[in-house]
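Lab notebook: predicted structure, single chain.

Context: the supervisor wants predicted structures on file for every construct in the current expression panel, including those that have not yet been purified. This is the next one on the list. No modifications to the sequence; it matches the entry in the shared construct table.
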Amino acid sequence: MTPADEILDIVDEHDEVVGQAPRGDATARGLRHRAVFIEARDAAGRLFVHRRTATKLVFPSHYDMFVGGVVGAGESYDEAALREAEEELGVSGLPRPTPLFKFLYEDEGTGHSWWCSVYEVRCDLPVRPQVEEVDQHVFLTDAELEDRLGDRAWVPDGLAAYHRLRSFRAGGAGPAA
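Prediction complete. Output recorded below exactly as produced.
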């Protein structure tokens, strides 16, 4: 089965399941579904940052400061967060990611829409990123990441989640859509 064939729950504006569709169809038709974003930090507190492979269905060759992906049909956000983090980082035995907040991502220009659940996890294990997902990676401090935000193409949903996470941690309105 290819990633485009993976079955997803299609959800409404309240994150209630209203149907199912293959991932490729959901993306092509702009059907709202679910996704998880996991901020992964190493033992030194540095953030895992990577460039997506050119073969990714959405936002190929873009940089991302989260690991994650879509939530499969019938899968919980929590289950998807652990699965996606372990897959992309190439580790097993990762602690369960801590949920922080949810928000609705909508991009009128592309028609993309998904409910996003944002998590954090500490990964003290050596990473072996999944070659199908990650083209290159590095661990960066927060200041190093901030310095790079303007000089490369970042996934727009990841940027939206990143700015909400910063606001959330500062006591602002992080989860607001």
